[in-house]
Amino acid sequence: MTRRITVRTRGQGLYEITDQVRAVVEEDDIDEGLCTVLVQHTSASLTIQENADPSARRDLHNWLSRLVVENDPIYTHTAEGPDDMPSHIKAALTATTLSIPIADGRLGTGTWQGIYLWEHRSRGSARNCLVHVGP
Question: Which of 59, 61, 127, 125 has the alpha carbon at shortest distance from 90?
Answer without folding.
Answer: 61
